[in-house]
Write a structure and sequence with these properties.
There is one protein chain. This protein is α/β, with parallel strands linked by helices. It is built from eleven helices and twelve strands. Strands 6-7-8-3-9-10-12-11 form an eight-stranded mixed β-sheet, with helices on both faces. Strand 11 and strand 12 form a beta hairpin. Helix 3 packs across helix 4 and helix 4 packs across helix 5. The model has no long low-confidence stretch (mean pLDDT 91).
Length: 320
């Protein structure tokens, strides 16, 4: 990404949660990546791998256990009061579940305008209403929807309302936390296409978290693959799909169906045997060692660092 300006820099980020017994759940364990202005970084991995926790800790929603997060050069976790409020104008979140993330007691207009009210961005009620109508139009809804309640809408329409809310403050950066996983497949493409369109029109930067690899390829410039709290591979979208280097990435990509019966029949699925280890007590060495078909003694002893093996292509594997 030569010449591109970093917007969000995550350095050795850790987020541990305490269990009732006092043990640490290592949800995010030493993760580093950079997101450049105007790009989309896709983040993929199985459920429970730490994607959402990583995103929310990067946004300052969860306090960090270690590491640092810089937004435009400033540490998010050291921001307080007015400085953090100013950060929330520039960075917003689209949540996973459009059924749970919208207040059922508020009208659509009040949901969308909540940020406008908090930051005092409208001089009067007319200006506030005009901005709400403009935002509804931007996401493919109309102004008649403003006085309805969330339960009157379909899942796809609710997610559009959530997107309108996140755009209300004219942010530069949006964390999209699995924004399509709760939607019908027919609606998912519409929402992803809307996000692509808005990015072009508004110059937005996205962290797009998902577990649907085909959809992530469509929207992302680069893709980061997470496994059990760590990053195992990071590369440009096209390169990752054409030449996955980590055994876990290879297994994930082999599971994507190809819409050609002959090709689909002739190719082989890579199956990872065994159970995913517990994030409370991850194994020494490589996190994938108990499931990897290519495991060696070094994998069992040493945790492989994420290193650049080709320009812009990072992988955490001793065998690459």
């Amino acid at each position: 990404m030569n010449g591109k300006q970093p917007l969000l820099e995550v350095k050795h980020l850790k987020k541990y949660f305490k269990t009732a017994g006092g043990a640490d759940v290592k949800a995010v364990d030493d993760v580093s990546f950079t997101i450049y202005k105007g790009e989309t970084l896709g983040m993929v991995g199985e459920s429970g791998c730490g994607k959402t926790t990583c995103g929310r800790t990067a946004m300052g929603v969860y306090p960090r256990t270690g590491g640092e997060v810089l937004f435009d050069g400033k540490d998010v976790h050291k921001m307080k009061g007015a400085e953090y409020l100013a950060f929330t104008r520039r960075a917003q979140i689209i949540y996973q579940d459009p059924y749970a993330s919208l207040d059922p007691r508020m009208t659509v207009a009040d949901i969308i305008a909540e940020g406008i009210d908090i930051h005092h961005l409208a001089k009067n009620k007319q200006e506030r209403a005009a901005r709400v109508y403009e935002l509804l139009e931007m996401v493919g809804l109309n102004k008649e929807h403003a006085n309805r309640f969330a339960h009157e809408f379909s899942g796809g329409q609710r997610q559009r309302i959530g997107i309108a809310r996140s755009l209300a403050l004219n942010p530069e950066f949006i964390m999209c936390d699995e924004p399509i996983s709760a939607l019908d497949v027919s609606i998912q493409a519409q929402i992803v296409n809307l996000l692509v369109k808005l990015q072009k029109e508004m110059g937005l930067t996205y962290l797009f978290i998902a577990h649907d690899l085909a959809m992530v390829k469509h929207i992302s410039d680069r893709i980061a693959v997470m496994y059990l709290g760590t990053l195992v591979e990071l590369a440009e979208s096209g390169r990752l799909y054409e030449n996955p280097l980590h055994p876990y990435t290879q297994a994930l990509l082999s599971a994507i169906p190809i819409p050609d019966p002959d090709v689909e029949h002739s190719r082989s699925r890579i199956r990872l045997e065994g159970e995913i280890p517990s994030p409370i007590d991850p194994p020494p060495g490589c996190r994938l060692q108990g499931r990897c078909p290519r495991v060696c003694d070094k994998c069992r002893r040493e945790l492989p660092p994420l290193r650049e093996v080709e320009p812009g292509h990072f992988v955490a594997c001793h065998l690459v």
